Amino acid sequence: MAENIPxxxxxxxxxxxxxxxxxxxxxxxxxxxxxxxEYTTKRLEGICPRCKHQMSVEVTExxxxxxxxxxxxxxxxxxxxxxxxxxxxxxxxxxxKAKILKF
Length: 103
Ligand SMILES: [Zn+2]
Ligand SMILES: [Zn+2]
Prior knowledge:
single chain; two-stranded antiparallel ribbon; mainly beta; binds zinc ion; 1 helix
């Protein structure tokens, strides 16, 4: 479906916060992709609600990583699709991001 869109129809990079984007991403579930006695690596992935490209974020948590701060319950999740949204370069996503709880 999304594969054959001509390049000139790609959305422009836009960091304007969109609460609907945040709400949609908050419904995604973290998947545990590896776990040892010390570390857990989790991945959040899905289709970006704005640009409809695949995006994913991974986080590793564990003892000794020094992540125990008041901010550690949430994470900046940002669209990181592999399509270039001008004027941004490929790999920077479409600009949408939000603070998402890590569980
Ligand atoms: Zn995209
Ligand atoms: Zn996007």
